[in-house]
Amino acid sequence: MANNKIIVPEARQALDQLKLEIANELGLNNYNSIDKGELPSRMNGYVGGYMVKRLVETAQKQMVNK
Length: 66
What we know:
This protein is an all-alpha fold.
């Protein structure tokens, strides 16, 4: 059960798009249609981990540009 709540509901679409982009970069095509229960937890973890990494990088760049 996921306890993660999106604080800004309008961001859900952007987060889903980011998830798909990162999954494609990792070689997981059609990530939306894949049964996540069939994937090793390592692969699902990679997608989430790279999402966080990309979001942190973006935030850092925005902070530098202010």
